[in-house]
Amino acid sequence: MASGGLQLLGFVLAFLGWIGIIISTAMPQWKMASYAGDNIVTAQALYEGLWMSCAMQSTGQIQCKVYDSLLKLESSLQATRALMVASILLGLVAVFVAVTGMKCMKCMEDDQVKKMRMAVFGGVIFIISGLAALVATSWYGNRVARAFYDPFTPVNTRFEFGSALFIGWAAASLAILGGSFLCCSCPRRETSYPPTRGYPKNASSTGKDYV
């Protein structure tokens, strides 16, 4: 029962992490314009994401523009996109594999060892998915931080971390943690002992042998 609860907890955490990775990928707030300089502009807020850039006016109106061409984007941004999409696809595969191996499901009930191995395999895929998202968000965040502290970057073009980065970091951590819990449900190897040989029972003698 304890392993079943740990398995369910791991799946829930990993699934929530996978949903968070999807939300982080779709959000345009990967980096937001910084107004730390002398010229503070409050008329609008600028955001940039993996797929579009947005500007929010002081009235609350948001205007977004999708990036025109994939070939015009920076190679680092293209790599971040690829890692996040790969993380989402791996998470989708991990969901189906882990569900098959869950104890509460009716699939593969005749072979519990294979069923538990499917849950462990799903956990491993969740960990890989979380690592891909963690690498993508950390890489993007490192680029934002380096550009912010670069003295050659104009003050009015500096950006800070957006909310999508924080969501991505939290989601990747949940996916890795949940996948680790699923891996803890690995079936233990039972020591096999040779079958004991039973001694033949002596036939009960009646005391008289008839010819």
From TrEMBL:
<keyword id="KW-1133">Transmembrane helix</keyword>
<feature type="transmembrane region" description="Helical">
    <location>
        <begin position="161"/>
        <end position="184"/>
    </location>
</feature>
<dbReference type="InterPro" id="IPR003548">
    <property type="entry name" value="Claudin1"/>
</dbReference>
<keyword id="KW-1003">Cell membrane</keyword>
<keyword id="KW-0796">Tight junction</keyword>
<dbReference type="Pfam" id="PF00822">
    <property type="entry name" value="PMP22_Claudin"/>
</dbReference>
<protein>
    <recommendedName>
        <fullName>Claudin</fullName>
    </recommendedName>
</protein>
<dbReference type="GO" id="GO:0005923">
    <property type="term" value="C:bicellular tight junction"/>
</dbReference>
<keyword id="KW-0965">Cell junction</keyword>
<feature type="transmembrane region" description="Helical">
    <location>
        <begin position="79"/>
        <end position="99"/>
    </location>
</feature>
<dbReference type="InterPro" id="IPR006187">
    <property type="entry name" value="Claudin"/>
</dbReference>
<comment type="function">
    <text>Claudins function as major constituents of the tight junction complexes that regulate the permeability of epithelia.</text>
</comment>
<keyword id="KW-0472">Membrane</keyword>
<keyword id="KW-0812">Transmembrane</keyword>
<dbReference type="GO" id="GO:0005198">
    <property type="term" value="F:structural molecule activity"/>
</dbReference>
<dbReference type="InterPro" id="IPR017974">
    <property type="entry name" value="Claudin_CS"/>
</dbReference>
<feature type="transmembrane region" description="Helical">
    <location>
        <begin position="119"/>
        <end position="141"/>
    </location>
</feature>
<dbReference type="InterPro" id="IPR004031">
    <property type="entry name" value="PMP22/EMP/MP20/Claudin"/>
</dbReference>
<dbReference type="GO" id="GO:0005886">
    <property type="term" value="C:plasma membrane"/>
</dbReference>
<feature type="transmembrane region" description="Helical">
    <location>
        <begin position="7"/>
        <end position="27"/>
    </location>
</feature>
<comment type="similarity">
    <text>Belongs to the claudin family.</text>
</comment>
